[in-house]
Amino acid sequence: MKLQCKKHRLDASVSDLSGSRFDDVNLSGATYENVNMSGGTYHNVNLSGCAFDDINMSGWRVSDVNLSGLRIEKANLAGASLSGCQLEGMTIDGIDVGDLLRTWEARAKQEGEA
Questions:
Q1: Element (H, E) at 103
Q2: Hey, where are the domains in the chain?
Q3: pLDDT tens-digit profile of 86-112?
């Protein structure tokens, strides 16, 4: 099925949309529940304000993505990698990541001089 230059509300359930492609699509306000999004590639995406619950996102690759305001709870982040990211204001279990990294860098520098 091809939708182009259309405005529709889709209500999909118990469906297989694997292999679908979305380009220049507005999904704001969409709800995702019990969804398998593993192996997806997301580039130049604004996910701020999105809510995901019980989602399989294993193998995701994201770049040039706005995740400001993102809240992750009860997640398996084993093997996750962040690089080239703006981390100011980000917290992990209430600990400011910027402060944490600055403390780690200072300690590593101090140990390197000893």
A1: helix 97-113
A2: 31-66, 87-114
A3: 888 999 999 999 999 999 999 999 998
